[in-house]
Amino acid sequence: TPPPPAPPRAAPAAAAAAASTTAPAGASSSLYVGDLEPTISEAQLYDIFSTIGPVVSIRVCRDLVTRRSLGYAYVNYNNSVDAARALEVLNFTNVGNKPMRIMYSHRDPSLRKSGVGNIFIKNLDKSIDNKALYDTFSAFGPVLSCKVKTDEQGNSLGHGFVQYESAEAAQQAIDKVNGMLLNDQQVTVAHFVRKSERQKDAENKYTNVFFKNISEEATEEDVQKEFEAYGTVKSVAIMKDEAGKSKCFGFADFEEPEAAQKAVDELNGKSIAGKEWYVGRAQKKAERQAELKAKFEAERKERLDKLQGVNLYLKNLDDQVVDDSKLRELFAEFGTITSCLIMRDAQGQSKGSGFVAFSTPEEATRAVTEMNGKMVGAKPLYVALAQRKEERQQRLKTQFSNRIQQGGTVPSVPPMFPPPMGQAQMFYGQPPPGVMGMGYPPQQMMMRPGMPYQQMMPVQGAQAGVPRQGGGRGRRNQQGQQGSMGRGAGGNRGMRYATNARGPVPGVEPLPVVAQAPPAAAAAAAAAATGAQDAAAAQGGTPALGLAQLLAQANPDQQRMMLGEALYPLVEQLEPATAGKVTGMLLEMDQSEVLHLIESPDALRAKVQEAMTVLQQAAAQAAQQQQTTVEEQLTNLNIA
Questions:
Q1: Under 8 Å between Cβ of 447 and 494
Q2: How many angstroms from the chain centroid is the CA of residue 602?
């Protein structure tokens, strides 16, 4: 646990300075720099730390997705002498508007987590900050970390932590400072005890007892007489309302923990004056909430376990299926239905989803097999075994992690889908660096339904196994060059641009351009696609229905491309920065479910949020692994 700083009133300055210049045994040349403002960059830190000595590297740790600073950094020097001097000179120096907190970076967290040399200080004056606390306690030995606990606004919470290199220094600090005055306030200094251990002690040793369901006429004297049969009672309090009327609950404080435990054992559930008393250990609100939450979760899990394999989740329900009885009729032929429910909004309108529970897993499996994808009204029904939200998130997280682990080169020509005219260029399904392209097959040409054959743009200079390089500026230049060619052939509407079409590469023979279809066939397909969409619109059908009709006439690769083009703009409106990744993840779902997302904004919003959660969790794990790798490389770095 990182400790905080505080303002001292004792601590000889000379002794503190001498202690602070002493580096811990085996001190490394790597420093941890914390409490940084989000705007602080590596260049600013380099200007500060290079005044001490040659800096090998500086890295501000950032969120892998948003690239925002996490508020801490690592600085590596050539030798431990420079690191020790930087720690002495620069610790608690203001960077921006906040003092930075510096300590040695230890690859092995065992010392930090062991709790050896870690002390806890409470009842600190609000004016005591990290530096003051450090100056006070560094007089007793080398300090590994020091911190005053603060709230979100940076105000002191009145307690802090200091971790020494040795247990002896910690004990000396406890002996000398415990009970002393710091800024006219008496402080308590003790060995740090983990929260889990404190909770165990509180459960086994307590003197404060909570009681409820007592008679309204019962007084504090009556309650005290009942409790005094088990030991000495220091105080009793019955809670009352504004009018002074008893709320029928209160607290009793015993002198000995054994007496409190005996009172709980014998009085809990006992009937007194016609009321059955509840007597138990007094708990903090947070502890009660955690206990109740765990209880409710256990009950919920038990209910879900009973429905495991028999509860089905339905989506994309037609508007004709408006009540539970019609839903029951749809699935009655597959077995005994124990319950069915259509989900509704606040106005009582169907959300297009629901649940059906069967009596046996076999009946549920048969219903999934025969009903999933079946046209009910004008919509293909999606049917699958119901899953908890946590299970769905874990499945998506596993899929995303597997793609990253497959790693390697990006396909030379991934499919590309430009957004509507006037929007920034973006490609759905574009994988992050080192990812295998979301499973899309390399293609030399892309055809969009309704796009004339002569507007198709061949990919030039595509080379297998060569990753795409260059930033957004290069892509815009290439698009401008190719766009001028396309406009000469009837405009750039529906044009496909290849971001890596850079012309022939020396020594690499370009791939052949394969014509997907003759002009006449392409024109006929375009006319058929346009006619199907117009027909769906004329009949009052939904866009998803028109797309479903087109999908039925396309091969699997074309289906994925068409779904992606329809889904990407919708995802981009919700998450512009990660629209490509999220769209690629959503396309891994069942086709009928993707159609439902295209048609239902609420369902799409929920799925996008779920995918973003998975991306952030995967990014956090990747950042942690990257940090560990970088630290190992820096540790093994040999300076010539």
A1: no
A2: 21
